[in-house]
Design brief:
This protein is of the alpha+beta class and about 150 residues long. It is about 15% helix and about 25% strand. It is built from 4 helices and 8 strands; from the N terminus they run ααβββββββαβα.
Length: about 150
């Protein structure tokens, strides 16, 4: 009964009668509201910077990266190589040229069955090729230089 009386006499500031036990002294109230956990963490990574690195008409040196891509959006043309991650790069010094060429897939390829069957009749497929025109021409005639 004495313990119950001491609990009722205890004020919020912690003042109590001298015969109070040490168990009651250890009771504390929360000073801050409990915060919730955040669920939307992440998603702050920078972009991968895919796309053209050199435009049509730019002068490039051998080894310059022309375009980076995840899928095969641009295809290698003349004097252009392709890396393991589909990066297109120049094989020779020269001028960059973009061309669109008609694409006809092999008759029984998976691309033909997936793509061609969904196109309307008579539609033509085009693919973009990146070419490098070399600055030094091999096998030029002297007569052409004089003209």
């Amino acid at each position: 009964m004495a313990a119950l009386a001491s609990l009722m006499l205890k004020s919020r500031a912690g003042l109590s009668i001298p015969c109070q036990s040490s168990l009651i002294d250890s009771v504390r109230f929360a000073s801050k509201k409990a915060g919730g956990s955040s669920k939307n963490v992440g998603g702050k990574s920078p972009g991968r910077r895919y796309g053209f690195k050199k435009q049509d008409g730019n002068l490039v040196h051998a080894g310059n990266i022309l375009a980076t891509q995840r899928l095969m959006r641009y295809h290698p043309g003349a004097h252009v190589g392709i890396g393991t991650n589909n990066t297109l790069y120049a094989l020779e010094d020269g001028m960059v040229r973009f061309t669109k060429e008609v694409y006809i897939p092999a008759p029984r390829s998976p691309e033909a069955t997936k793509v061609i069957t969904k196109l309307p009749k008579g539609a033509v497929l085009y693919k973009t090729f990146i070419n490098v025109l070399p600055t030094k021409q091999e096998g030029k005639f002297k007569l052409v230089d004089m003209v």
